[in-house]
Amino acid sequence: MRRHTTLSKTVMKDRLFDSFIYIYLLFISVITLYPFLNVLAISLNESLDTVRGGIHIWPRSFTLDNYKEIFQYDNLITGFINSASRTIIGTILGVLSSAMVAYTLSRADFQGRKWFSTIIVLTMYFSGGLIPGYMLIRDLGLINSYWVYIIPGIVNAFNIIIVRSFIDGLPYALQESAKIDGANDFTIFWKIIMPLCKPVLATVALFVAVGHWNSWFDTYLYNSMNENLTTLQYELMKILQNTSMGSTDPNSMKGMTADQLKTFVSPESIKMAISIVTIVPILIIYPFVQKYFVQGMTIGAVKS
Amino acid sequence: MKAVTSNERTMTIIQKPKKKSFWKTFVQQKYLYLMSVPFVLLVIVFNYFPLWGWSMAFQNYKPALSLFQQEWVGFEHFIELFSDERFYRALRNTLGMSLLGLTVGFVMPIIFAVLLNEVRLSVFKRTVQTITYLPHFVSWVVVAGIVTKMLSTDGGVINEMLISLGILDKPAQFMAEGTYFWSIVVASDIWKEMGWNAIIFLAAISGIDSQLYEAAKVDGAGRLRQIWHVTLPGIRPTILVLLILNIGHLTSIGFEKQMLLGNNLVVDYAEVLDLYALNYGIGLGRFSYGTAIGIFNSVISIILLFVANGIFKKYSNSSVM
Question: pLDDT band at residue B108, thresholds of 50, 70 and 90?
Fold first, then answer.
């Protein structure tokens, strides 16, 4: 009898625990999603109406004016083009370099393996610091240049390690038979290793692409004086910093005529619309690579 | 394991004929060199050359002069640094935010991973994962905008909630009050990275032998006891390794969040060492002084990494580095 009651107590406890877990995870999901939905709703709501407050996850008076407005900013278009182009170029170069270097480091017979691997891995433990890095970029003449977005970030030790541990896990027999057929090292890499590495290269591509798309600091530090080299995140950052203390001051609209009010778009709405523009490309790619990056993250974290 | 055996096999294949001269092999491996040397050179230029710039900290560096014309001043900049009040404030801010992150920010993903692992409904589990990984991919610029919006005094959802719950009677100026700043930074970081940081713990949990859970069940352990006696000990090595790595990065927490979330009103709490270096070094053109700050930061990082690794070695006979 006694045993029975303790048993059912455990069951009761487990049930309670289960409901606690579901409530907790729901809560986490809601607080993660709510801000995004809120931003989306505001970006789709009439600016004047937004100022009245009370918009949560659904626009009260729907409009696309905020988006029409932001696509009239020249800087934003330039920023979008620069961000997109650096993401594409940077990702292609980043993935190719990681794959090539990782392949050579995975070849036990490669003479340079030990040295090259030490040189690359050590970079994960130290950095020269902000100022010496800045001086180097300046001495190389990369300030006020598009190439500062691409060249310094081509090689990344973490990505090389991820790809390398993936290649290490492939059966060596594949390379061996190609070698017997007379293929050179580059052909083996290109025709055999690259196709097999697709999952891990997708992970690396995602990491590199997101890094490029989201970066603003290099624009701020090196290219802020040249409008033609601006990036989307930097433009957003400027708008956010200018009005960071809160949303629109209603007093600023007092002097406006009815006509002006009609077309008025507050900085608040602008911010939200640009935020959505920067998030959407990530949202589009995200579902396709989700299954890969968990794997990639795990390998990388275990290795480092 | 597989990797080791395949590498051993390579060794035997290559070395069987006879020891070839370096240059002969070099020519044979020309494609391997072509595929790696350009990138290794890039690493040397962008990661190692700046180390040479550390010499600036011991000079009165003037950009117009060559290395031989610079005036060497020894530790003068470091002495100035250690007598600057603003430096101690930056150090306090760096350590304050990183310690908060190392404790609260470190525990949250573990709790999240452990609890998520208890969910049987795989659709629910996958949905929660998809949602919580998302903020990791969004830039700090956007996140800073979102945080500012959520905490704003007019229409910010946090203030609205706190008022309707009766906790506050008028909106709090979260972004203008220095004392809130550290918590805001750490909380935003948790909001952004908790799901992502949980991935590694989820992977570790899935590696735990399911027989251990069966055994615990036979012994009459409920779910909570199974977590305490099986799951948590099972991911202990992972937790330790990540803890050591995080301790090594204690002073290099970055400055992006602080720069984007901070404003003039909270600068006393927002200026971390990197921002201090940036403001002096590039903002005021005092390159030597800025470099000295960076060197201090790096040296502390390396010492912390070694100390943490040493402690870890002592307790577990293995090493992270």
Answer: very high
* pLDDT at res. A73: 85
Put residue B111 in one of left, alpha, beta given phi > 0 → left and psi -120 to 50 → alpha. Answer: alpha
Distance between CA atoms of residues B158 and B150, nearest Å: 6
| Number of Cβ within a 10 Å radius of residue A88 | 12
Q: B43, A123: Cβ pair inside 8 Å?
A: yes
Instruction: For residue B24, give how far its alpha carbon lies from the nearest alpha carbon of chain A (Å).
Output: 11
Residue A189 DSSP class: I
More confident residue, B244 or A29: A29
Contact A63, A262 (CB under 8 A): no
Contact A25 B148 (CB under 8 A): no
Identity of the residue in B3, B127, B142 whose CB atom sits nearest the CB atom of A278: B142
Query: What burial class does residue A299 get, using C-beta atoms within 10 Å of its C-beta: 0-12 exposed, 13-18 middle, 19+ buried?
Result: buried
- CB-based contact B136:B193 (threshold 8 Å): yes
A18 vs B66, residue with greater confidence: A18
Place of tokens 């949202």: A283
Q: Which domains does chain A have, with CATH numbers?
A: 66-304 (1.10.3720.10)
Backbone angles phi, psi at A57, to 5 degrees: -115, 5
The answer to whether the Cα torsion of B106, B108, B114, B120 is positive or negative is negative
Q: Best residue in A131, A160, A165, A249 to probe B by mutation, most B CBs within 10 Å?
A: A131
Ramachandran sector of residue A141 (left: φ over 0; alpha: ψ -120 to 50; beta: rest): left
**Helix or strand or coil: residue A62?**
strand
Query: Which positions in chain B touch A159 (Cβ < 8 Å)?
Result: none
Minimal C-alpha gap between A185 and chain B (Å): 6
Cα separation, B99 vs B87, in Å, equals: 18
Query: Residues of B98-117 as b/e, b for ≥16 C-beta within 10 angstroms?
Result: bebbbeebbebbbebbbbbb
Token pair belonging to A103: 């392949």
ipTM for the assembly: 0.87
Instruction: Report the distance separating Cα B286 and Cα B59, nearest Å.
Output: 11
How would DSSP label each residue in B27-82?
Answer: HHTHHHHHHHHHHHHHHIIIIIHHHHGGGGGGBT--TTS-GGGSPB-TTHHHHHHH
> Alpha-carbon distance B275 to A248, whole Å?
29
Q: Which residues have C-beta within 8 Å of that of residue A34, sequence separation ≥ 6?
A: A57, B157
pLDDT at position A246: 42
DSSP string, A68-136: HHHTT-HHHHHHHHHHHHHHHHHHHHHHHHHHHHHHHHH-TT-TTHHHHHHHHHHTTT----HHHHHHH
A30, burial (CB in 10 Å: exposed 0-12, middle 13-18, buried 19+): exposed
Q: Which of B70, B211, B149 is nearest to A272 (CA)?
A: B149
pLDDT in tens, B128-182: 999 999 999 999 999 999 999 899 887 788 988 898 888 888 888 898 888 999 9
Cα angle vertex B187, ends A241, B260, to 5°?
A: 15
Lowest average pLDDT, out of A218-232, B6-20, B142-156, goes to B6-20
What span, in angstroms and rounded, lies between the C-alpha atoms of A100 and A94? 10
Domains along chain B with CATH numbers: 76-139+181-316 (1.10.3720.10)
Count of C-beta atoms within a 10 Å radius of residue B141: 27
Burial string for A239-276 (b: 16+ CB within 10 Å, else e) reads: bbbebbbbbbeeeeeeeeeeeeeeebbbbbbbbbbbbb
